[in-house]
């Protein structure tokens, strides 16, 4: 029984052993993916990254504008270590620092 199940699973995995036409179709699909699909992915991924950053910074600008504050560094401090200048991250880091350094 186990041998029959193993044989069935093996046939399921190695199904493209059909005709020469199936083999050619697999090669054509692989060539299409390699020459058309894969080269399109990095620009799309970069576009998505830039759009997400743009949305985040726009929300930050709106928050800054509506707060009426004149201190832009309170919302985003570009002089801080990479990634830790956002106001929410600064607040979280300060909370962690206060809990870790209880005296």
Features of the shown structure:
103 residues, mainly alpha, 0% strand
What does this structure look like?
The chain has 103 residues and is mostly helical. The chain is built from three helices and no strands. The longest helix has 48 residues, at 20-67. It is elongated and about 70 Å long. It starts with a helix and ends with a helix.
Number of helices: 3
Listing every helix as H and every strand as E from the N terminus to the C terminus, the arrangement reads HHH
Uncertain regions spanning at least 5 consecutive residues: none
Structural class: mainly alpha
Biggest sheet architecture: none
* Overall residue-averaged pLDDT value: 77
C-alpha-based Rg, rounded: 27 Å
Fraction in beta strands: under 5%
Shape: elongated
Give the strand tally: 0
Distance between the termini: 68 Å
- Helical content (DSSP H or I, runs of 4+): over 70%
List the helices and strands and how they pair.
Elements: H1 2-13, H2 20-67, H3 87-100
Compact overview of the structure:
This protein is 72% helix and 0% strand.
């Amino acid at each position: 029984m186990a041998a029959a199940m193993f044989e069935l699973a093996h046939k399921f995995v190695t199904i493209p052993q059909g005709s020469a036409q199936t083999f050619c179709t697999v090669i054509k699909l692989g060539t299409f993916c390699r020459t058309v699909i894969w080269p399109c992915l990095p620009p799309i991924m970069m576009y998505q990254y830039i759009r997400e950053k743009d949305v985040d910074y726009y929300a930050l600008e709106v928050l800054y504008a509506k707060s009426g504050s004149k201190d832009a560094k309170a919302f985003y401090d570009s002089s801080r270590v990479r990634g830790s200048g956002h106001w929410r991250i600064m607040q979280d880091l300060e909370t962690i620092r206060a809990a870790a350094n209880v005296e």
